[in-house]
């Protein structure tokens, strides 16, 4: 069977079989129960941003392209309100209260201490600091984030599963082509206007360039695996595409068309191998950010549910830590002369890809495209910004480390959901293998 892959995953020391077993038995079931929790199911996104590269020509007319919006009341209060701001103001209040008490009780004896506690910076200076903090953080980002965008809205991901929508043809091809042609590194010697690199030519690229290509190709393979696994079974059930009660399920011949060597000029299995590669990249990012993620509060305003979420995350991270062969990002950007330039280009290229998502003509594909590229961007930030490189000995981070490990809620939500998508793809691949058998 062409999708019965084996051997080592490219650029890694780990075997495909190891990932299959680890994912299907340990990771996939845990993620399935984690991602239905409130903290992870509401994603804030602006789906109305105009395409910055060309005029937005195509709108998908199919009903299944539409994103169902969720009512204001459905969104947990702790998510709607800016919980970090709320928490920060609680911290400030507590510190003011403390200052007052100290003032009252031991005014005479602790002047020195009071001076320190009362030390405040002017409002203007504070605003300036916030601006510079945001600027510093933005430099590390591999994507533009919608979290503070006025036009961003919450979407309930459970109401809008990623599946076949019928989005195809010139619009979809234009997106993939610009991703591969304009934003991926290309073999210089064999430059051609065919946007899709043949796997045999990849050895003409350096490691960082190959890694970039493989993560994009892996993401592409994952999206296409999903639409095959969740296909609108119109023919089998005699339903039309406009039937509101459309039935969804695996479509084996569509999967074969997209990935068998015969119909893809031998490339299909390589694309599937890239799916395993991007899985390992995100897995490593989760492991690396583990101490920070364990320390998050996953605040939604519902104590019982937040506790469940924290326990589920802890359990997931524990299992991830046990994985024997993590992707080793320290092998990248080592060449002193080129490292900075390559890292800069890597980041710029990836940012462009996240902006291309605003050109996707099908609303639901845009939603999942944005979420998955943001999740991947967050993984790259964790791996390559240097801010997560320190080994943390104590589980609870002090205030200083916490600042350095700053991730916005949307980054965490997108990272875990994006990893959930890759995990599901690998799981579904196994279903297709069984069917082919
Ligand atoms: P495409 O998938 O459009 O691929 C174009 C060309 O890319 C292929 O001919 C091949 O040469 C090359 N290629 C294919 N796969 C790979 C790979 N893994 N690595 C490298 N090269 C490759 N459709 C849905 O039904 N549901 C969705 O949720 C959805 N989400 C999408 C999200 C985004 C961001 C985009 C751009 C598209 C999405 N689509 C979705 C559309 C879907 O991905 C395909 O574009 C569409 O089904 C048409 O498929 P195709 O067979 O013409 O080849």
From TrEMBL:
This is Ero1-like protein. GO terms for molecular function: FAD binding; protein-disulfide reductase activity; thiol oxidase activity. It is a peripheral membrane protein. FAD binds at residues 163, 165, 176, 217, 220, 258. It is found in: Endoplasmic reticulum membrane. GO terms for biological process: protein folding in endoplasmic reticulum. The active site is at residues 362, 365. Keywords: Disulfide bond, Electron transport, Endoplasmic reticulum, FAD, Flavoprotein, Glycoprotein, Membrane, Oxidoreductase, Redox-active center, Signal, Transport. The keyword DNA damage does not apply. Its cofactor is FAD. Belongs to the EROs family. InterPro entries: Ero1 (IPR007266), ERO1-like_sf (IPR037192). One of its GO terms (cellular component) is endoplasmic reticulum membrane. Disulfide bonds join 60-65, 106-143, 362-365. The keyword Disulfide bond applies. Its main location: endoplasmic reticulum.
């Amino acid at each position: 069977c062409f999708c019965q892959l084996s051997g080592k995953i490219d650029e890694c020391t780990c075997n495909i079989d190891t990932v299959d077993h680890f994912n299907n038995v340990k990771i996939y079931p845990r993620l399935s129960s984690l991602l239905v929790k409130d903290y992870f199911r509401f994603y804030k996104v602006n789906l109305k941003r105009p395409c910055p590269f060309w005029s937005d020509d195509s709108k998908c007319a199919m009903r299944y392209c539409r994103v169902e919006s969720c009512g204001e009341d459905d969104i947990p209060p702790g998510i709607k309100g800016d919980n970090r701001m709320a928490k920060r103001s609680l911290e400030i209040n507590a510190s003011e209260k403390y200052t007052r008490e100290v003032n009252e009780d031991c005014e005479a004896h602790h002047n020195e201490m009071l001076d320190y506690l009362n030390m405040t910076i002017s409002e203007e200076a504070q605003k300036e600091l916030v601006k510079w903090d945001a600027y510093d953080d933005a430099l590390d980002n591999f994507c533009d984030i919608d979290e503070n965008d006025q036009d961003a809205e919450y979407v309930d991901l459970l109401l809008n599963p990623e599946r076949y929508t019928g989005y195809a043809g010139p619009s979809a091809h234009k997106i993939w082509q610009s991703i591969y042609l304009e934003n991926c590194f290309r073999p210089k010697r064999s430059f051609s206007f065919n946007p899709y690199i043949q796997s045999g030519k990849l050895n003409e690229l350096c490691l960082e360039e190959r890694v970039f290509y493989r993560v994009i190709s892996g993401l592409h393979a994952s999206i296409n695996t999903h639409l095959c696994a969740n296909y609108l079974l119109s023919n089998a059930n005699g339903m039309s595409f406009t039937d509101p009660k459309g039935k969804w399920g695996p479509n084996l011949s569509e999967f074969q068309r997209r990935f068998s060597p015969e119909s893809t000029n031998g490339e299909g299995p390589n694309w599937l191998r890239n799916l395993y590669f991007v899985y390992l990249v995100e897995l490593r990012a989760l492991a690396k950010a583990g101490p920070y993620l364990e320390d998050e509060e996953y605040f939604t305003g519902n104590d019982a549910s937040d506790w469940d979420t924290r326990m589920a995350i802890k359990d997931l991270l524990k299992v991830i830590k046990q994985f024997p062969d993590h992707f080793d990002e320290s092998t990248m950007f080592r060449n002193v002369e080129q490292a900075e330039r390559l890292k800069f280009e890597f980041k710029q290229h990836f940012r462009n890809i996240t902006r291309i998502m605003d050109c996707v003509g099908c609303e639901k594909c845009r939603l999942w495209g944005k979420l998955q590229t943001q999740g991947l961007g967050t993984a790259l930030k964790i791996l390559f910004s240097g801010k997560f490189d320190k080994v943390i000995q104590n589980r609870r981070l002090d205030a200083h480390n916490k600042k350095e490990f700053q991730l916005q809620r949307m980054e965490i939500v997108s990272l875990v959901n994006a990893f959930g998508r890759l995990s599901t793809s690998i799981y579904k691949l196994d279903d297709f293998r069984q069917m082919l058998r």
